Amino acid sequence: MRNNKLQFQQLNEKLDKLTGMQHLIVPPIGWIKAIRNGIGMSMEQLGKKLSITKQAVMDMEKREKDGAITIKSMQEIARVMDMKFVYGFVPNAGNLEQMIEMRALEIATKIVQRTSTTMKLEDQANSNKRIENAIKERATEIINNTPKILWD
Question: How far apart are alpha carbons 4 and 16 in whole angstroms?
């Protein structure tokens, strides 16, 4: 399917471990503040560990809540709170393989239906079963030969 099949499989396995996290809800006040409050750490204490002011901690918590904080900042905050910051992507389709298959089917359907419409206009219409088989065949061909067109 792909030139880098082993790399793809390894990546897919890593993402599979994150699948259960797609329903994880970020606390409305943000992770930093929620965890800091949960463990009873004051802004001053966190600031001291980070060598920043209470106001800077407040600013970081606000930036996290607004989605404007850097990954590097989150990693540093996690480190000083004796935690590990984890981030990743989780495919909506379940896994990468399913995501690619769904996209290939979408493209194949467009291609086959366009051809089918042209043939119908020329009075050479195909049966629904034949169209369905053509879509499946075209999707398989797209997956096996040209996955880059999936993202055009």
Answer: 18
Res 105 pLDDT > 70: yes
Residues 6+ apart with CB under 8 A from 30: 61, 64, 65
- Its pTM stands at 0.71
pLDDT of residue 138 exceeding 70, the answer is: yes
Contact 30, 61 (CB under 8 A): yes
The ranges assigned to domains in the chain are 20-80, 96-151
Which distant-in-sequence residues (6+ apart) come within 8 Å of 26 by Cβ? Answer: none
Any idea which of 90-94, 116-120, 132-136 has the lowest mean pLDDT? Answer: 116-120
Joined tokens for residue 106: 């979408």
CA distances to 15, 80, 124 from 120, rounded to whole Å, are: 43, 67, 5
| CA 20 to chain CA mean position, Å | 13
- CA-based diameter of the chain, in Å? 78
DSSP-assigned letter for residue 39: T
